[in-house]
From TrEMBL:
InterPro entries xrefs: UPF0756_TM (IPR007382)
Keywords: Cell membrane, Membrane, Transmembrane, Transmembrane helix
Similarity comment text for this entry: Belongs to the UPF0756 family.
Coarse class of the protein's main subcellular location: membrane
One Pfam family from the record: DUF441
Membrane topology listed for this record: Multi-pass membrane protein
Protein name: UPF0756 membrane protein P6N53_04240
GO CC annotations on file: plasma membrane
UniProt KW S-adenosyl-L-methionine keyword: no
Transmembrane segments: 6-34, 50-68, 80-100, 112-129
Length: 152
């Protein structure tokens, strides 16, 4: 195996530190360790199931208040049926659609992730953003590409 993957992972690790993105730095570090210890068999597992595993943990963290009974169900109903709640439903539907488009884009052209990482670091450092992961960046990239294709 060549050294290009190691170099890219080291660059991503540094970008994670510079951009104050512990998630990116941790992911790059784990992949670097797997690569350097020649545990290549885990790459296919992570490629196939990594996103699902991550999304499960994300959903768990969001749903914990429900499991703890920290919410009042009438308040949930009122908030959901309010104008803000209706907009939240629309926002959630559009976000998940865009994330799906982003996932399709990343599967078709995985090299774009490096540009998204650079953009994420830029957004964190210069725009005060929060790193939420590659799917939303990929979803927005897919939207931007679609708009560009409309005008061609």
């Amino acid at each position: 195996m060549g050294k290009n993957g190691v170099i890219i992972l080291v660059i991503l690790l540094i970008m994670g530190f510079v951009g104050n993105s512990t998630l990116m730095a941790t992911a790059a570090c784990i992949l670097l360790i797997l690569r350097l210890t020649k545990l290549y068999r885990f790459f296919s597992l992570l490629e196939r199931r990594g996103l699902e595993i991550g999304l499960i943990f994300l959903m768990l963290s969001v749903l914990v208040p429900l499991a703890h009974d920290n919410v009042v169900y009438m308040e949930i109903l009122e908030k959901t049926l309010s104008p803000q709640g209706i907009l939240a439903i629309i926002g959630g539907a559009l976000a998940t659609h865009m994330n799906g488009e982003g996932l399709t884009l990343l599967k078709m052209d995985p090299q774009l992730i490096f540009g998204m990482v650079i953009g994420s670091v830029f957004g964190i450092v210069f725009l005060g953003g929060i790193p939420i992961g590659p799917l939303m960046a990929a979803g927005l990239t897919a939207l931007f590409l679609e708009v560009v294709y409309w005008f061609k």
